[in-house]
């Protein structure tokens, strides 16, 4: 824990395991007093980077920054370093009047809007923060299995940590590349890339598949869930997509996207949350009934969302 103010004021740094139990943590935090002075979150995060070097990197780590978001020096660079730390999740929380908080700075610290806790009521914000921590701890814990192998001469016991973070997401993007969306294709690609940049991509986190549709015969799986392992690869592949033109078979796009539920495509049944996002202008003139296909996708476990973009 780091308690800080400005560069010229003292700060308190509590090392790892400074509290041995919940009661001790509450007692210490209740005894904290305001330091006074200006705000320099950048320096506090630099101290946090030093502390992170001392941690056990095999254990998931949550970093919660509580601030009004008005640092004298921009904290974005050290925040990004912390966001890239393995097994690390960044959160930013503020209380008080939301209008007086620098929301962009909080977003820079957390790295994603869903990790920013902002509310006018202090008690409510504290409740939300506690709930976030509980959910993150539950999701990101690892489980351990032990296997014992015995021969006539030796006994070997091997302990492995299951590669399950609880943060797995199988994301299927279904993009309308029919003739009616020609002016919108680049917007669909841009929105898809913005979404991917906000996610942690990898075999133990988010996997991405992309399906493009137009006429039934021109609906294609551009890449499956198992194809790419990094954010850079997914962004590049989306950027290289080209419109095919043709009629609009939304139902066929959903039907093909639903095939990503199969393990051979890279799906992780029982482990990953399944989400399908359909980008379309909604004009249907070919193919299977999209409502029926949507029901089938939901029946096999997909959360289904649609996105439209209006120009002008």
Q: Give the spatial strand order of the biggest sheet.
A: 10-9-8-11-12
Helical segment count: 9
CATH architecture of the largest domain: 3-Layer(aba) Sandwich
Order of helices and strands: EEHHEHEHEHEEEHEEHHEHE
Oligomeric state of shown chains: single chain
Termini separation = 49 Å
Helix share, percent: 25-40%
Please report the first level of CATH classification, the CATH class of the largest domain: Alpha Beta
State the secondary-structure class: alpha/beta
Number of beta strands: 12
How many separate domains?
A: 2
Largest sheet at a glance? Answer: 5 strands, mixed
Outline, from the CA principal axes? elongated
Within CATH, the superfamily of the largest domain carries the name: von Willebrand factor, type A domain
Task: Tell me the fraction of residues in β-strands, as a range.
Answer: 15-25%
Evaluate the radius of gyration.
24 Å
Uncertain regions: pLDDT < 50 for 5+ in a row?
A: 141-162
Quick structural gist:
It holds the Pfam family VWA. The protein has 312 residues and is an alpha/beta fold.
What does this structure look like?
This protein is of the alpha/beta class and 312 residues long. It has two domains: 2-139, 3-Layer(aba) Sandwich (Rossmann fold), CATH 3.40.50.410; 169-307, von Willebrand factor, type A domain (Rossmann fold), CATH 3.40.50. Helix content is 31%, strand content 21%. The chain has nine helices and twelve strands. It has helices spanning 22-30, 41-52, 76-83, 103-110, 122-139, 185-197, 231-239, 250-258, 290-299; strands at residues 2-3, 12-13, 61-66, 88-94, 116-118, 144-150, 155-161, 169-176, 206-213, 220-223, 273-279, 302-307. The strands form four sheets. Strands 10-9-8-11-12 form a five-stranded mixed β-sheet, sandwiched between helices. It has a three-stranded parallel β-sheet with strand order 3-4-5, sandwiched between helices. Strand 11, helix 9 (290-299) and strand 12 (302-307) form a beta-alpha-beta unit. The longest helix has 18 residues, at 122-139. The protein is elongated and about 70 Å long. The model is unreliable at 141-162 (pLDDT under 50).
């Amino acid at each position: 824990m780091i308690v800080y103010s400005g560069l010229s004021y003292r700060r308190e740094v509590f090392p790892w395991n400074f509290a041995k139990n919940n009661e001790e943590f509450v007692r210490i935090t209740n005894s904290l007093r305001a330091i006074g002075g200006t705000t320099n979150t950048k320096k506090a995060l630099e101290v946090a980077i030093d502390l992170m070097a001392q941690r056990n990197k095999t254990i998931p780590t949550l970093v919660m920054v509580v601030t009004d978001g008005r640092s004298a020096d921009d904290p974005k660079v050290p925040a990004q370093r912390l966001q890239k730390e393995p097994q690390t999740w960044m959160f930013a929380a503020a209380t008080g009047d939301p209008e007086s908080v620098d929301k962009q700075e909080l977003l820079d610290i957390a790295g994603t809007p869903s990790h920013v806790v902002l509310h006018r009521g202090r008690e409510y914000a504290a409740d939300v923060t506690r709930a976030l921590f509980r959910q993150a701890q539950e999701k990101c814990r690892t489980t351990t299995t032990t296997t014992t192998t015995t021969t006539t001469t030796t006994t070997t016991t091997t302990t492995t940590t299951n590669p399950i973070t609880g943060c797995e997401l199988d994301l299927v993007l279904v993009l309308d590349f029919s003739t009616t969306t020609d002016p919108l294709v680049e917007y669909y690609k841009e929105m898809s890339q913005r979404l991917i940049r906000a996610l942690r991509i990898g075999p133990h986190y988010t996997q991405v598949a992309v399906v493009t549709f137009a006429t039934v015969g021109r609906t294609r799986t551009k890449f499956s869930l198992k194809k790419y392992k990094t954010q850079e690869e997914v962004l590049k592949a989306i950027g290289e997509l080209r419109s095919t033109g043709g009629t609009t078979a939304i139902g066929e796009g959903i039907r093909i996207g639903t095939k990503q539920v199969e393990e051979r495509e890279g799906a992780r049944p029982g482990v990953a949350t399944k989400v399908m996002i359909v980008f379309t202008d909604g004009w249907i003139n070919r193919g299977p009934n999209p409502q029926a296909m949507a029901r089938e996708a939901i029946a096999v476990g997909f959360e289904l969302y649609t996105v439209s973009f209006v120009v002008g």
